[in-house]
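does this look right to u?? glutamine version
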Amino acid sequence: MDFQAVLNEIAEEITPLLGTGGGQVASYIPALARVSPMQFGIALRTCKGEEAAAGDSGRPFSIQSMSKVFSLTLAMRGLGDTLWERMGREPSGSPFNSLVQLETERGIPRNPFINAGAIAIADRLLTLGDAKSDMLALLSSLCGDTVVIDAEVAQSEADTGFRNAALANFMKGFGTLDNSVDTVLDVYFNQCAISMSCVQLARAAGYLCRDGTHPYGGAQVISEAQARRINALMLTCGTYDAAGEFAFRIGLPCKSGVGGGIVAVVPDTLSLCVWSPVLDKTGNSQLGRMALELFVAKTGLSVF
Ligand code: GLN
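got this back:
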């Protein structure tokens, strides 16, 4: 298949729609509110190492909740099944920053991809090593470039992350967190503030379409079974309360972030990343979702 031609077509169809959909860029994190909405990028890398990209695919953006895939990877690798003693695996059906389920479920997050889940994972990573640098090292190794944190975004999140602080305090009260709330939130805010481009993210997610093996060199990043499970969680929980709609329309494991990126996996075939900063009301990229729908329609690549 001529993937470059497919991505060119998608960019040609999406670009005229920039600025027309009525959504907005994330504004609750002030540093993200300044990002131009008029941007769209798409990139993929096949399991065989073929690459294609179009639009603003080389421009770094804030990966936000897409980081939750990689922090989960580190936690699964370091903790194995004990991770699930403090973590659920069911879709939440609620917004990513919702507090309500934590009360009824006694401080155990529904899944690792809502904010509560990722904050609890940040706590686990602190017990395993230097959580921030372990994350940067994993991402840099996976994409072959040096990956960095945008300090301004991290500070902006810390200044305004009142809901995340509430989630962390709530979990601390229930005994889900071992480390101090401030230490855990610092890790979480910094991982969300990592900057990467579509090209880098498509490469970095390569282990998820290659049964857990490294996109360069083929060493095992995580086991085949763990890679399968991360894909399952991405499909059922990766786009929050729109996960059903994403499965219905796209049918690929996906993970979104409020920076406007969505990473998607076609198991045994390729990993791809789309980015456009304007979000719908569920916090997923409006045009990113449309681009993924176009990709599946044009290529017939879906898990279903
Ligand atoms: N940093 C964001 C937050 O915690 C991440 C949310 C997201 O990307 N869905 O609110």
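The first strand starts at residue 41 and ends at 46. idk if thats expected tbh
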